[in-house]
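A note from the maintainers: we've had questions about how concatenated examples are separated. There is no special marker in the raw files; a new sequence line simply starts the next protein. For clarity in this README we add a label.
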Amino acid sequence: MAVPETMKRWDVVVVGEIYADHVFSGFQHWPAPGEEVHTDHYLRELGGGTVNTACGLARLQRRVRLVGLIGEADREWFKSRLKSFGLSADGLRCSPLDTGVTVSVSTAQDRSFYTYPGANRRLTELLDDPGTRSELIAARHVHFAMPLAADLARRLFPLLHKAGCTTSLDVGFSPDWLQDPDNHWTCRAVDYFFPNQAEARLLSGDESAEAFRDWAQSVGLRHAVIKLGAAGAAAIVRNDLLRVPPPPVHAVDMTGAGDAFDAGFIDGVLNGESIEHCLQRACICGALCTTRIGALEGLPDLFSLRSTYEQIYGP
């Protein structure tokens, strides 16, 4: 039985992999093998798509529950930093394993990541816990920022749909997951699927939006969205591609742009917006995120989102 929205405790539960990010940016080119390059731009920050999207939604004044695993030594740091976004750390569980770590290296055009999973290895165990499932069904929307195992997805999605939750999924660059046909069921079961071009290429064999559209239709996805970087984004609507350009910005760091995009799109879904308007809000959030170093400082608040929307796409 679906839980009425008025009885839901949170607008969104964001669940998935959580990291301590070490962000190096401002490079003019990628180093050749054996070459050392230097930058004056370094940031240690909370990271991972889970944290980034949760903070993005909190900036847009959504009631957000963040669920994941971290190492005990980092709890106070997470608690303090999340508080600055109006987020509680109560949904984070401490693991005997260390917090996951990601090193992000970026130019103004692109970025690469080096990752140690750490406590994230125990996410499946966490999501099978009855207490965690009670948290998930207490939300209007559940966003998964992780490569959700097929058997776990089959246990979770019927429960969430029965509770009246809408769902979204961003697996990140997870080649094994993306190339495994067993995960097509998950792609169909989720309400909104958010790959970028590199991830879409692993699904369809090509980075073009057209190739992704053909793949999504062959698999039977309900709402498929592809993030196109500087070209904006596209969604499949009535068997055709709906494209939306991003606002013009001076990008300094691409870290977290896709996660901010997810937050903007989900915010639109919660508002009952059309797919086109959801894409526009998402493109604004993703673009503005790139104007500051790191994934969090450039996240727009509701005023910035609305004012940019009116300037770029009209009232």
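[label: protein 2]
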Amino acid sequence: MSKLNLKQQSMLMSAVLALSFTTASAGEAHITSVTTSENSEATSQHQPQMISQNSDYLRQIQVFLPKPSANNQTIGYVEPVTRATSRVDVAEFAIEQIIQGPTSAEKEQGFTDIVDFRGESTCGKNFTINISNGIAQLQFCRTVPTAGIGEDAGIQKAVTNTLKQFNSVDQVVIFNKNGDCFKDMSGKNACLNSIEGVVWRPVPGTTASSGGELGRVNPQPWEVGINTISRNGDAINFDVNANGKYVRYSGNCQRELLSRIKVGDVENGQVTDTISVNENYFKANRFQEPVLDYACSPS
């Protein structure tokens, strides 16, 4: 091969340099492409995480509804369905879902409606719920008609099982619109006896040498069951131990009105032998005022 002249050598050197530059550029382009692909993959992985975080904000709640048992022999049989909510008042939401009943798809699976209401409300809505010291007290504010003990048991089991899923609830007590135990055919308000460990607190200014609740002398201060207080605006219900006499009051905090809705006895801190009374509202007297104020004061 003949030797290249100076001009040819110069042209060959330029071609080699051009080829090297092109190869390097291609390499850089490839690296950039890989980096972009990695960023794209990272972004695609990040998006589901964001969606997951939003989904976690919806809390899954079990709502127990009546359904025929496998052998159709179990009275008040209930099974859970799932509802999702972002609300903070999950207990109230759960009871609302029991009242709303099953979806169309759930009805096809055998779930049935269980709660129906009649008449006027005593609290301005369908129910009130108060949870304190592990005890959930649900009061229906309208008449709840049922077809018999099967439906009665279904409502009680649905409410109890639903509320006990929450860590703050150990016991459940259900009242009708008059403040009596729900569907207690004995008339003894036995559900009140199931409230273990009522937290009684003495009320200053209620000790007296004469007078007192139901004509009794008050050698010791009256006590309010702080875990029995149920309040909706100015309307309030609460239990009182007036030296061994039990009274459940319905009252109005602003107008200082009271009405006895149940009376009975208190033995060793436990409520016994209660009966319902039908009493008009009256102005709290000098013994009852501090009790009402104590119950109405923020805890």
